[in-house]
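dumping this here before i forget
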Amino acid sequence: MSGPRYDTIGRSYSATRAEDPRIAAAIHGALGDARTVLNVGAGAGAYEPPDRAVTAVEPSEVMRAQRPPGAAPCIEARAESLPFEDGAFDAAMAIFSDHHWGDRHAGLRELRRVGRRALVLNWEPRMGKAFWLTRDYIGEFADFTRDTWQEAKDALGATEERIVPIPHDCADGFLLAYWRRPAAYLDPLVRANISVFALMAPEEVDAFVERLGADLKSGAWAERNADILELEELDVGLRIAIAM
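structure:
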Protein backbone atom coordinates (compact mmCIF):
# COMPACT_ATOMS: atom_id res chain seq x y z
CA MET A 1 0.00 0.00 0.00
CA SER A 2 1.51 3.30 -1.02
CA GLY A 3 1.61 5.54 2.02
CA PRO A 4 4.27 7.86 0.55
CA ARG A 5 2.32 8.28 -2.70
CA TYR A 6 -0.83 9.33 -0.90
CA ASP A 7 1.15 11.52 1.49
CA THR A 8 1.80 13.53 -1.69
CA ILE A 9 -1.31 13.23 -3.85
CA GLY A 10 -3.89 12.78 -1.12
CA ARG A 11 -3.70 16.23 0.42
CA SER A 12 -6.94 17.47 -1.18
CA TYR A 13 -8.56 14.05 -1.40
CA SER A 14 -11.67 14.86 0.59
CA ALA A 15 -12.49 17.78 -1.75
CA THR A 16 -13.66 15.52 -4.60
CA ARG A 17 -13.72 11.97 -3.19
CA ALA A 18 -16.98 11.81 -1.24
CA GLU A 19 -18.83 8.55 -0.67
CA ASP A 20 -21.48 7.85 -3.29
CA PRO A 21 -24.56 6.29 -1.64
CA ARG A 22 -25.34 3.96 -4.55
CA ILE A 23 -21.84 2.50 -4.62
CA ALA A 24 -21.95 2.32 -0.81
CA ALA A 25 -25.14 0.27 -1.04
CA ALA A 26 -23.44 -2.21 -3.38
CA ILE A 27 -20.48 -2.55 -1.02
CA HIS A 28 -22.64 -2.95 2.07
CA GLY A 29 -24.70 -5.57 0.26
CA ALA A 30 -21.54 -7.49 -0.60
CA LEU A 31 -20.56 -7.50 3.09
CA GLY A 32 -23.56 -9.70 3.80
CA ASP A 33 -24.31 -10.14 7.49
CA ALA A 34 -20.76 -9.34 8.64
CA ARG A 35 -20.71 -7.49 11.95
CA THR A 36 -16.95 -6.89 12.26
CA VAL A 37 -15.28 -5.37 9.21
CA LEU A 38 -11.66 -4.54 8.40
CA ASN A 39 -11.15 -1.78 5.83
CA VAL A 40 -7.66 -2.00 4.29
CA GLY A 41 -6.33 1.08 2.53
CA ALA A 42 -9.11 2.95 4.26
CA GLY A 43 -8.08 6.47 3.27
CA ALA A 44 -10.43 9.14 4.59
CA GLY A 45 -13.04 6.57 5.58
CA ALA A 46 -15.47 6.49 2.66
CA TYR A 47 -17.68 3.42 2.37
CA GLU A 48 -17.18 2.25 5.94
CA PRO A 49 -20.61 0.99 7.08
CA PRO A 50 -21.80 2.98 10.12
CA ASP A 51 -23.92 0.12 11.45
CA ARG A 52 -21.03 -2.34 11.87
CA ALA A 53 -17.88 -2.53 13.97
CA VAL A 54 -15.18 -1.28 11.60
CA THR A 55 -11.42 -1.28 12.05
CA ALA A 56 -9.43 0.70 9.48
CA VAL A 57 -5.88 0.25 8.18
CA GLU A 58 -4.18 3.16 6.39
CA PRO A 59 -0.40 3.72 6.00
CA SER A 60 -0.60 7.36 4.87
CA GLU A 61 -0.52 9.95 7.63
CA VAL A 62 -2.02 12.52 5.25
CA MET A 63 -4.98 10.27 4.54
CA ARG A 64 -5.49 9.34 8.20
CA ALA A 65 -5.63 13.04 9.07
CA GLN A 66 -8.62 13.49 6.73
CA ARG A 67 -10.77 10.93 8.51
CA PRO A 68 -13.78 12.74 10.00
CA PRO A 69 -14.59 12.94 13.72
CA GLY A 70 -16.27 9.77 14.84
CA ALA A 71 -14.76 7.63 12.08
CA ALA A 72 -13.73 4.07 12.84
CA PRO A 73 -10.42 3.57 14.68
CA CYS A 74 -7.55 3.53 12.21
CA ILE A 75 -4.11 1.97 12.60
CA GLU A 76 -0.96 2.44 10.56
CA ALA A 77 -0.16 -0.82 8.77
CA ARG A 78 0.32 -2.26 5.30
CA ALA A 79 -1.89 -4.66 3.41
CA GLU A 80 0.94 -7.11 2.80
CA SER A 81 1.45 -7.71 6.53
CA LEU A 82 -1.74 -7.19 8.50
CA PRO A 83 -1.28 -7.39 12.29
CA PHE A 84 -4.32 -9.60 12.92
CA GLU A 85 -4.94 -13.28 13.51
CA ASP A 86 -6.47 -15.57 10.92
CA GLY A 87 -10.20 -15.00 10.58
CA ALA A 88 -10.14 -12.08 13.02
CA PHE A 89 -12.98 -10.29 11.18
CA ASP A 90 -16.29 -11.34 9.73
CA ALA A 91 -15.27 -9.48 6.57
CA ALA A 92 -12.25 -7.64 5.21
CA MET A 93 -12.54 -5.18 2.34
CA ALA A 94 -10.40 -3.03 0.07
CA ILE A 95 -12.07 -0.17 -1.80
CA PHE A 96 -10.13 1.41 -4.68
CA SER A 97 -6.84 0.65 -2.92
CA ASP A 98 -5.35 -2.74 -3.87
CA HIS A 99 -3.77 -1.44 -7.11
CA HIS A 100 -1.54 0.80 -4.98
CA TRP A 101 -0.13 -1.94 -2.78
CA GLY A 102 3.53 -2.81 -3.16
CA ASP A 103 2.66 -6.50 -3.56
CA ARG A 104 -0.96 -6.64 -4.65
CA HIS A 105 -1.29 -10.42 -4.55
CA ALA A 106 0.27 -10.71 -1.11
CA GLY A 107 -2.09 -8.04 0.19
CA LEU A 108 -5.11 -9.79 -1.29
CA ARG A 109 -4.06 -13.06 0.30
CA GLU A 110 -3.73 -11.22 3.62
CA LEU A 111 -7.20 -9.73 3.15
CA ARG A 112 -8.60 -13.23 2.74
CA ARG A 113 -6.56 -14.58 5.66
CA VAL A 114 -7.93 -12.14 8.23
CA GLY A 115 -11.49 -11.99 6.90
CA ARG A 116 -13.92 -14.89 6.90
CA ARG A 117 -15.35 -13.03 3.92
CA ALA A 118 -13.21 -10.73 1.75
CA LEU A 119 -14.17 -8.28 -0.95
CA VAL A 120 -12.45 -5.87 -3.30
CA LEU A 121 -13.96 -3.02 -5.30
CA ASN A 122 -11.91 -1.97 -8.30
CA TRP A 123 -11.78 -1.60 -12.08
CA GLU A 124 -11.65 -4.39 -14.65
CA PRO A 125 -8.98 -3.04 -17.06
CA ARG A 126 -10.29 -5.15 -19.95
CA MET A 127 -13.25 -2.76 -20.00
CA GLY A 128 -10.93 0.04 -21.10
CA LYS A 129 -12.34 0.09 -24.62
CA ALA A 130 -15.82 0.62 -23.19
CA PHE A 131 -14.83 3.92 -21.57
CA TRP A 132 -14.07 6.91 -23.77
CA LEU A 133 -11.43 8.30 -21.41
CA THR A 134 -9.17 5.26 -21.52
CA ARG A 135 -10.13 4.38 -25.09
CA ASP A 136 -9.58 7.76 -26.72
CA TYR A 137 -7.33 9.81 -24.47
CA ILE A 138 -5.18 7.91 -21.98
CA GLY A 139 -4.67 4.52 -23.58
CA GLU A 140 -1.31 4.39 -21.81
CA PHE A 141 -3.33 3.69 -18.65
CA ALA A 142 -2.76 0.01 -19.47
CA ASP A 143 0.87 0.59 -18.53
CA PHE A 144 -0.22 1.18 -14.93
CA THR A 145 -1.97 -2.21 -14.68
CA ARG A 146 0.57 -4.60 -13.27
CA ASP A 147 -1.63 -7.67 -13.54
CA THR A 148 -5.08 -8.64 -14.65
CA TRP A 149 -8.31 -8.45 -12.70
CA GLN A 150 -8.57 -12.24 -13.03
CA GLU A 151 -5.17 -12.65 -11.38
CA ALA A 152 -6.30 -10.36 -8.55
CA LYS A 153 -9.49 -12.38 -8.11
CA ASP A 154 -7.46 -15.58 -8.02
CA ALA A 155 -5.17 -14.17 -5.32
CA LEU A 156 -8.22 -13.21 -3.28
CA GLY A 157 -9.86 -16.57 -3.85
CA ALA A 158 -12.97 -14.85 -5.20
CA THR A 159 -16.01 -17.00 -5.89
CA GLU A 160 -18.39 -14.22 -6.95
CA GLU A 161 -18.22 -11.01 -8.98
CA ARG A 162 -20.79 -8.22 -9.06
CA ILE A 163 -21.11 -5.42 -11.62
CA VAL A 164 -21.39 -1.92 -10.13
CA PRO A 165 -22.83 0.58 -12.64
CA ILE A 166 -21.66 4.15 -12.12
CA PRO A 167 -24.38 6.81 -11.81
CA HIS A 168 -24.08 9.85 -14.06
CA ASP A 169 -23.87 12.16 -11.03
CA CYS A 170 -21.51 10.00 -8.98
CA ALA A 171 -20.37 11.85 -5.85
CA ASP A 172 -17.04 10.03 -5.65
CA GLY A 173 -14.58 11.52 -8.10
CA PHE A 174 -12.53 8.47 -9.01
CA LEU A 175 -11.18 7.85 -12.51
CA LEU A 176 -14.42 6.46 -13.96
CA ALA A 177 -16.84 8.81 -12.22
CA TYR A 178 -17.13 11.60 -14.79
CA TRP A 179 -18.14 9.50 -17.80
CA ARG A 180 -21.03 11.92 -18.57
CA ARG A 181 -19.27 15.03 -17.23
CA PRO A 182 -16.08 15.20 -19.31
CA ALA A 183 -15.26 18.82 -18.48
CA ALA A 184 -14.54 17.73 -14.91
CA TYR A 185 -11.28 16.13 -16.07
CA LEU A 186 -10.03 19.59 -17.06
CA ASP A 187 -10.17 20.67 -13.41
CA PRO A 188 -6.72 20.38 -11.75
CA LEU A 189 -8.33 19.63 -8.38
CA VAL A 190 -10.27 16.70 -9.83
CA ARG A 191 -7.12 15.32 -11.48
CA ALA A 192 -5.09 15.83 -8.30
CA ASN A 193 -7.29 13.27 -6.53
CA ILE A 194 -7.12 10.62 -9.26
CA SER A 195 -3.95 8.56 -8.95
CA VAL A 196 -3.68 7.76 -12.66
CA PHE A 197 -2.88 11.40 -13.44
CA ALA A 198 -0.20 11.41 -10.75
CA LEU A 199 1.42 8.43 -12.48
CA MET A 200 1.43 10.15 -15.87
CA ALA A 201 4.24 12.46 -16.91
CA PRO A 202 3.29 16.16 -16.65
CA GLU A 203 3.61 16.64 -20.39
CA GLU A 204 1.23 13.71 -20.96
CA VAL A 205 -1.34 15.27 -18.64
CA ASP A 206 -0.98 18.62 -20.41
CA ALA A 207 -1.48 16.96 -23.80
CA PHE A 208 -4.57 15.15 -22.52
CA VAL A 209 -6.09 18.36 -21.14
CA GLU A 210 -5.41 20.22 -24.37
CA ARG A 211 -6.90 17.49 -26.55
CA LEU A 212 -10.00 16.92 -24.42
CA GLY A 213 -10.58 20.66 -24.09
CA ALA A 214 -10.39 21.08 -27.85
CA ASP A 215 -12.77 18.18 -28.46
CA LEU A 216 -15.29 19.58 -26.01
CA LYS A 217 -15.11 23.01 -27.59
CA SER A 218 -15.48 21.68 -31.15
CA GLY A 219 -18.24 19.24 -30.26
CA ALA A 220 -16.16 16.23 -31.34
CA TRP A 221 -16.45 14.61 -27.92
CA ALA A 222 -20.25 14.91 -27.86
CA GLU A 223 -20.50 13.53 -31.40
CA ARG A 224 -18.36 10.49 -30.56
CA ASN A 225 -20.22 9.80 -27.32
CA ALA A 226 -23.81 10.68 -28.21
CA ASP A 227 -24.99 7.22 -27.16
CA ILE A 228 -24.21 7.80 -23.47
CA LEU A 229 -25.39 11.39 -23.01
CA GLU A 230 -28.88 10.45 -21.83
CA LEU A 231 -27.93 7.42 -19.72
CA GLU A 232 -28.52 7.51 -15.96
CA GLU A 233 -25.81 4.94 -15.22
CA LEU A 234 -23.13 3.08 -17.15
CA ASP A 235 -21.08 -0.09 -16.75
CA VAL A 236 -17.50 0.93 -17.44
CA GLY A 237 -15.89 -1.93 -15.55
CA LEU A 238 -16.37 -1.26 -11.85
CA ARG A 239 -16.55 -4.63 -10.09
CA ILE A 240 -16.82 -6.17 -6.64
CA ALA A 241 -14.99 -9.48 -6.20
CA ILE A 242 -16.09 -11.53 -3.20
CA ALA A 243 -14.39 -14.47 -1.48
CA MET A 244 -16.37 -16.51 1.04
